Amino acid sequence: MDAIAKIRERARKKMKSIVLPEYYDKRVAEAARIIKDEGLAKVTLFTEDMVDKSEKERYIQEYYEIYKNKDIDLEAVRKLFEDVLYYAAMMTREGKFDGLVAGAAHTTADVVRSSMRCIGIDERITLISSCFIMAVPDCPYGSDGVFVYADCGVIPDPNARQLSCIALSAAELAGKVLDLAPRIAFLSYSTKGSARAKSTDKIFEALAMLKKMAPDLAADGEMQVDAAIVPEVAKIKYPDSPIGGRANVLIFPNLEAGNIGYKLTQRLAKARALGPLLLGLNKPASDLSRGCLVEDVVDCVAVTAIRAQ
Q1: 121 touches 281 (CB < 8 A)
Q2: Which of 57, 165, 305, 306 has a CA that sits 20 to 30 A from residue 234's CA?
Q3: CATH, residue 151
Q4: What single DSSP character describes residue 72?
């Protein structure tokens, strides 16, 4: 059974309620039908006529009270809530849904902002980031071709602390969703001091921070990608690495590298890319590419459901 089939099977075992606020997108509507037919989640295609006016007003007032010190007035909040995305995110915050999936018709910035402000950030992680589950066909690397790539969608130039939190969040997702023992590699153009720069110093600090937060995690860096994922190369470039060229969670040094990396893998290796899956929130949420296929929506819902279990 391949990785995607396993994800769908795990979602079925304990169905969770997931809201899809982009009811007007045909891909999302078709995905909702498939999700119901396959029993992957209790999915709600949330339409404008499902909005309760008194509840919406309560959500507007709550949102305003939380963020009024950030130079936002009540009328600006009302304008935000003209989009059902914010209403659905507040319902998720309250536990009326277990998770949220959007992005087929919204930008990543829209989905991240509404999720961050309505669902809220996990105090343990302290920041919102993202990852992709990459399933590469006929690939001996990672975990039989399965990887988690992070961050590929949110933080442009993470500092050391942010990198460590991204790594921890991505590793936890790998364990929860994919049932993998995470092996984390902080990627660079350098392998363990073969070059020296501010960027490599940052990775050194991030690794030290991660080890303090989660000492039992297998993690290493800085590493070139071949030393991270190819055992034969690791033996030459970095024979003492605890990862041994078997990394399955790849942490990119910045957003440019992460975004380029996942799209190259997706297009050149014909990989499935599930995400962006948002990390660091109080409840699970997933963004979608605006170029997503119906199957992408289905599988992101399945992942979000597993994370909510």
Answers
A1: yes
A2: 165
A3: 3.40.50.10750
A4: -
Does residue 264 share a domain with residue 158? yes
**From the CA atom positions of the chain, what is the Rg in Å?**
20
224 and 135, same structural domain? Answer: yes
pLDDT for 194 equals: 66
User: What is the per-residue pLDDT across 172-215, written as a single tens digit (0 to 9) for each?
Assistant: 999 999 999 999 999 999 898 766 778 889 999 999 999 999 99
Interhelix angle 53-67/84-94, nearest 10 degrees: 80
In a shared domain, residues 272 and 134: yes
Three-class secondary structure of residue 44 per DSSP: strand
Give me the amino acid identity at 151.
D
pTM: 0.94
Structural domain boundaries, residue 263:
124-280
Clarify whether residues 115 and 135 are in a common domain.
Answer: no
Mean of the per-residue pLDDT values of the chain: 95
Cβ neighbours around 174 below 10 Å, total: 24
Q: What are phi and psi of 278, to 5 degrees?
A: -80, 135
Q: Which band of pLDDT confidence, cut at 50, 70 and 90, is reported for residue 286?
A: very high
Closest CA to 134 of 280, 276, 293: 276
Q: Among candidates 9, 257, 287, which has minimal Cα distance to 129?
A: 287
**Domains in the chain, number:** 2
281: pLDDT strictly greater than 90: yes
* Orientation of helix 294-308 relative to helix 26-38, angle to 10°: 50
How far is the C-alpha of 131 from the C-alpha of 167, rounded, in Å? 10
HSE of 12, CA atoms in CB hemisphere, 13 A: 12
